[in-house]
Amino acid sequence: MKPEGILKHLPWMLLGVLGASCLGVVALRRGEHISALWIIVASIAVYLVAYRYYSLYIASKVMKLDASRATPAVVNNDGLNYVPTNKNVLFGHHFAAIAGAGPLVGPVLAAQVGYLPGTLWLLGGVVLAGAVQDFMVLFISSRRNGASLGEIIKKEMGPVPGTIALFGCFMIMIIILAVLALIVVKALAESPWGVFTVCSTVPIALFMGVYMRFLRPGRVGEVSVIGIVLLVASIWFGGVIAHDPYWGPALTFKDTTITYTLIGYAFVSALLPVWLILAPRDYLATFLKIGVIVGLAIGIVILNPELKMPAVTQFVDGTGPVWKGSLFPFLFITIACGAVSGFHALIASGTTPKLLACETDARYIGYGAMLMESFVAIMALVAASIIEPGLYFAMNTPPAALGITMPNLHQLGGDNAPMIMAQLKDVTVHAAATVSSWGFVISPEQILQTAKDIGEPSVLNRAGGAPTLAVGIAHVFHQIMPAADMGFWYHFGILFEALFILTALDAGTRSGRFMLQDLLGNFVPFLKKTDSLVAGIIGTAGCVGLWGYLLYQGVVDPLGGVKSLWPLFGISNQMLAAVALVLSTVVLIKMKRTQYIWVTVLPAVWLLICTTYALGLKLFSDNPQLEGFFFLANEYKQKIAAGGADLSAQQIANMNHIVVNNYTNAGLSIMFLLVVYSIIFYGIKTALAAHKNPQRSDQETPYVAVPEQSSANSEGEVKVSPQH
């Protein structure tokens, strides 16, 4: 290499050394607390070096991106579905679509085994698997007129695997929506402050939609500022409401009540025009996502907090109370979206390729946005690791694992309030003793004081990750801006998470409705009409009914719905990513670029090993610590039979819930295995046939040069409509 070449790469080499050094400190220091800054600096260095070199290698060698090739947005520019969009604007749209609850919740749950395993997988997984998948699918779809994942599989492998893929994608979407909704329910149960604040986002979004549509069309920045001001006001006023002797108890709802409300809301919302509620909430969510994560990073740099969670805890053996399973394979399933997410393949093959102005922008948007999501996940892991470990486990462990029964907190406003508070104090003492016995010492006073600080009656039974992340956010922001109390910042964190989740719930329910209409339309053609209100109502009811059923079963699960639904979500999500990578491999072979298939084969094989092994354990293991689906179902069936008249009606109902939930999870797991391995079978069959064929056999659309008058270019210098 010439001296000028060395000088060109020297800064990147130094950055790589810095990142490796910081990662070494994170990995090798034991027996002492280290600063969270080591993780932040290491992560940024890894992301920058990976983007500079590995993504460039994929773009130039594997894909051979061509800036002179017209994208679907340029060829089909209709000002509606196909619109050449500024790459920075599209980056924001794409990031808002892919960054849902997964990168926030998965890493928080993964903190059970310590901060080190999660950090290593979040960095290695995104560089070698997650960002590669997003980038490859976006590239493949943009070369096929913006086709969806199912359509691409149908074109490249045949109609049978295409139909199987569409069905599999729909069922995975149902699991995703159920888990998203469960996180909201767990965050808002028994929380009048949270209920008021999150419910306020509905009229705020409706006002913004009307404002942009009729009052001040196209004034996105203006209405977003108004929306943010109203959101902040709703957080402050929520605190007033929560402490009101009438409204506080009136807005304290049980988790089942919130479940029914959320199901009804999702049904109505999915039938409303996009401009009325979904688009305005998307703007708000995007501003909050970027603002909170950047603010959290700046706060950590200023405060330089210590990581209080150990690098590795004793729960790597699979005995943890938050989720069951050993480090391999369950860590990778639990973290899910922050490292690799199959859900992204649905976005990268749906809306985004139809807005891509220049083919070379795919690197920045596909690979770059996934790196940004991974950074969100790193921030969530750090936020969970800087609070007291004892508090973390007290919040996230289901009551049954703590050996307690939670009192009815929604009765705090009645005559029984003194008795309820006495019961709450008793269960807090018991919970603190249980958590302390695990080696994470915490006093009942610390747990009660935290609840008081954040304006909640209790922090126990707050599984799901969202409340824990909100506490971490509150700790950082309160120290930076102490004028607002912890309660304000905690509910700001809850609102931040709920906004992204409700946006994803709205968008996901709409997508699920279209998928279901497409599937049912094969038998009843009328149902394929997406512009029909009747067909829309039927499709929406079917979609909401399916995820609503899973949500309800998760909410009433005595063992904690997160423990049963999150592994299923993680496994199905990672399996979808494996399917997308298998498709990418098949396309590369058909394009006669077999020498590069290691880029997609290695992550695909790893994901298939992890997910298949994890599903095998969850289905067939008789290890009580793993809480396998068939094992738990049979165990509780035997308890019901053996208990007989000695069991109360409530105990029998609880056990029946566990039996039904585990049989449901087992059935879904087997279905996912059949779907994934059917597609792999067809993929291998197609790849072998393509390998024997001396000619290219992929279904890429013919080359069309970018028109000279087109303003779309790699710098994104395009005219963008107000909606884009």
From TrEMBL:
Q: Where is this region: Disordered?
A: 695-724
Q: Which UniProt keywords apply?
A: Cell membrane, Membrane, Transmembrane, Transmembrane helix, Transport
Q: GO:BP terms for this protein?
A: cellular response to starvation
InterPro entries assigned: CstA, CstA_N
- Record localization: Cell membrane
Membrane-spanning ranges: 12-28, 34-54, 95-115, 121-141, 162-185, 191-211, 223-242, 262-279, 286-307, 327-352, 364-387, 488-505, 533-552, 564-589, 596-616, 663-684
Q: Which residues form a coiled coil?
A: none
Q: Which domain of life is it from?
A: Bacteria
For the CstA N-terminal domain, which residue ranges apply?
36-614
How does the protein associate with the membrane?
Answer: Multi-pass membrane protein
Q: Name one GO cellular component term.
A: plasma membrane
Q: Which family does it belong to?
A: Belongs to the peptide transporter carbon starvation (CstA) (TC 2.A.114) family.
Q: What is this protein called?
A: Carbon starvation protein CstA
Recorded source organism is Serratia odorifera DSM 4582
